[in-house]
UniProtKB/TrEMBL annotation:
Keywords: Chaperone. The keyword Glycosyltransferase does not apply. The keyword Transmembrane does not apply. This is Chaperone protein TorD. Pfam families: Nitrate_red_del (PF02613).
């Protein structure tokens, strides 16, 4: 192992958990267990900010919908008959087409980082749920410069537009509150990564590009089924 074990702060653990929550919500409609988790989530409503308002809105929405109801909403939004109302792929938001150059670059970076897709996964790796899943892992296991590089190259330029599109989609009811939370969260992430880019030395090894990952980061990821 060529890199020291990274100490995970409480804040980074929370960020990673939120990324994994978005991965679960955007991969498929939420299960009854996930809805119950959202309903029972303890939220400090003394904090008057956009994140708190978004958490409370999502919690209220989780009380109003069943998993069966959300199956139809998810289908209309992301799948549809031929095409859903939203195309949840980075390539689409970056270039206006699917399976484009950004996907090829993403696959190269995932390979260097040690990620492998499960054999039964059919969706391209630039699905927003897959990218959230990867970011959740990187926050816990990868150096800061790798987190920064991955976010800037594969999410930062378009994730805000994705949130706006999801919030305005005709079928979005529960998922409008998901979009509200995601918008608030990714605005905070943009600020965090902007500060991180200032803190990382320009000549930091690997900061200009992704380098091969250590073996303990390598894993198969259920990117999207």
């Amino acid at each position: 192992m060529t890199e020291s074990v990274r100490q995970v702060s409480e804040n980074d653990q929370l960020r990673a958990d939120i990324y994994q929550l978005f991965a679960a919500l955007l991969r498929r409609q939420p299960s009854p267990e996930l809805l119950q988790f959202l309903i029972t989530l303890e939220i400090d409503d003394n904090e008057d900010n956009e994140m708190t308002k978004a958490w409370l809105s999502l919690q209220l929405a989780a009380q109003q919908f069943s998993s069966d109801q959300l199956e139809d909403e998810y289908f209309n939004l992301f799948l549809g008959v031929g095409c859903g109302e939203i195309l949840p792929y980075g390539s689409w938001f970056m270039t206006g087409s699917l399976m484009d150059k950004p996907l090829a670059l993403l696959r190269q970076d995932l390979m260097q980082l040690g990620f492998e897709r499960e054999d039964n996964v059919k969706e391209p790796e630039d699905h927003v749920a897959a990218l959230c899943e990867v970011m959740g892992v990187l926050l816990l296991e990868a150096p800061s410069y790798r987190q920064l590089a991955f976010y800037q190259r594969h999410m930062g330029s378009w994730i805000g537009r994705f949130c706006d599109s999801l919030a305005k989609a005709p079928s979005a009811a529960f998922y409008a509150t998901v979009a509200q939370l995601a918008k608030a969260f990714f605005e905070m992430e943009a600020n965090a990564f902007e500060q991180l880019s200032l803190d990382i030395p320009v000549n930091c090894p690997g900061s200009a590009d992704l380098q091969p990952a250590t073996s303990d980061l390598a894993k198969k990821v259920d990117l999207v089924n």
